[in-house]
Amino acid sequence: MTTRFCLVRHGETDWNAEGRLQGQLDIGLNASGRAQAKAAATRLAACRFDAIFSSDLERAYDTAVPMGKALGLPVETTPALRERFFGAFQGLTHAEAQALFPADYARFAARDPEAPLPGDGESLCAFSRRVGGALNHLADELGGNTILIVAHGGVLDMARRLASGQDLRQKRDFTLLNAALNWIERRDGQWAVQSWGDVAHLDGSLDEILDAAGGAGA
So where does substrate get bound (predicted)? Predict the structure, then answer.
């Protein structure tokens, strides 16, 4: 049995443009992000989906709504698809986080999978378990279907690593573009990446924050 997922990062926000770690702060789309959401919806209207799930944060949900209208499907929200909780790093640029929390930032930049972030932020391992659990649950509950997921750069990072087997410690070597289309699947219990970073429907798109560790946070 094959379950297919199309993963879409939310449209652009002003904090994306400023290079700030949004985490679970509820930042809305900017004008470019709203245009990207509409363009992605038009592109996806030609596809068949059985369900749409979105993070319950505004920037993801507002990206998903035009897609739901284009596909004639309700958008179901879930906190399990939220961005990583960055604790005290949220709202800061990487330079600001490094200056304010040098030891914590060093562990973050080194991609220490067990290190929590200051302010009760999620470790990479905890974040990976949350995202992987959500995707496996959907694949179990909706096996054989095609599912649209609208979420965040960090969520897509964890999903790609789940599907490819890439270690959490390894620096990111793939894109996480606003409103790009990214396809993975689970076939007979095994995950695989089908295609990644499709932006044919967009005039331009920002990549997820690229820090010294190739991390994600928007």
Answer: 9-16, 59
- Is 192 in contact with 167 (CB distance < 8 Å)? no
10 is in an annotated binding site: yes
137, two tokens: 């649950």
Task: Count other C-beta atoms under 10 Å from residue 207's C-beta.
Answer: 18
Edge to edge, what strands does the sheet with 2-9 contain?
75-78, 51-55, 146-151, 2-9, 181-187, 190-198
Q: How far apart are CA 85 and CA 75, in angstroms?
A: 23
Q: Band the pLDDT of 216: cuts 50, 70, 90.
A: low
Question: Hey, which residues are catalytic here?
Answer: 10, 83
Q: What is the tens place of the pLDDT at every residue in 58-79?
A: 999 999 999 999 999 999 999 9
| Locus of tokens 């302010």 | 119
11 is in an annotated binding site: yes
Q: What share of the chain is helix, strand, coil (3-state, %, to 5)?
A: 40, 20, 40
20: which 2 tokens?
Answer: 């700030």
Helix (H) or strand (E) holding 196: strand 190-198
| Predicted confidence band of residue 158 (pLDDT cuts 50, 70, 90) | very high
Question: Model-level pTM?
Answer: 0.94
Instruction: Say if residue 16 carries a ligand binding annotation.
Output: yes
Q: Between the CA atoms of 83, 87, 92 and 93, what dihedral angle is there, to the nearest 10 degrees?
A: -60
Q: In the CATH scheme, what architecture does the domain 2-211 have?
A: 3-Layer(aba) Sandwich (3.40)
